[in-house]
Amino acid sequence: MVQNRLRPRLRARQTTYGLWVTLESPSITEIAVMLGLDWIVVDTEHGHLSWREVMEHVRTVRDSETTVLVRIAEIRQDAVKRALDVGAHGVLLPLVRNRGDLEAGMRFGRYPPAGVRGIGGERAVQWGLGLQEYLAQANEETMIIPLIETRDALEDIDGILAVPGLEAIFFGPADLSASLGHLGAWEGPGVAERILEVRDKAARRSVASGIVGVSVQDGIGRREQGFEMIGLGSDAGMMIRSVREAQEKLGLHARPHLWF
Fold first, then answer.
1. What is the pLDDT of residues 208-238, one digit of tens each?
2. What per-residue string of b and e applies to 248-260 under the rule 16 or more CB within 10 Å gives b?
3. Annotated catalytic, 46?
4. Which CATH number is 200's domain given?
5. 257 lies in a domain?
6. Is residue 87 part of a domain?
């Protein structure tokens, strides 16, 4: 679990594809691994997943080419530590407002002297059997990725992108739209343009950018725009998308569904 196979792919500016996991069954992650997806994000900010369920998702990627990241609920030391201790390769920090928020998340995810992460004997270190190997590599291999989804983050984006060790950012268009006064829109007026401006700034600093596509065509467009991390959708959202397509083709009533 120490080696993070996503990192070299992003450094090489390769396009990678992933799945947003919101449901509890680790079979979802197992299927994602079997399909050869580059990464998954287990979302604990929204929904109902317990830490036990998170660990089952993380456990499923063992000895595979898939990187597993956990979106934590808040930028707190205990949340970052717990996600990494169960074996995640990195965390996504929600609602980052400024450079200070990201720097705090970085400290929480790094062992001393670079940070304040405590040493435990949990799953990440193979219950203590792989402690030295893990400690020797964890600070370098662990990814701390800020979600760019607030007006404040846009206003301090230069400071955020300048944080040492930053390798990737991830956009949350719906929350970013809400923060800019367009509640309920995926990309409100002007938001798409702001996202691309930040993506370009990040690229100039060799920082990768990620986003979730709301459709296959949107994913193709994101690839053409240069995003290095493209989410194909969420587990529940993709099931709904597929069923709705079947309903429409069969002439059945299909309830409207937004986003991914």
1. 999 999 999 999 999 999 999 999 999 999 9
2. eeeeeeeeeeeeb
3. yes
4. 3.20.20.60
5. no
6. yes
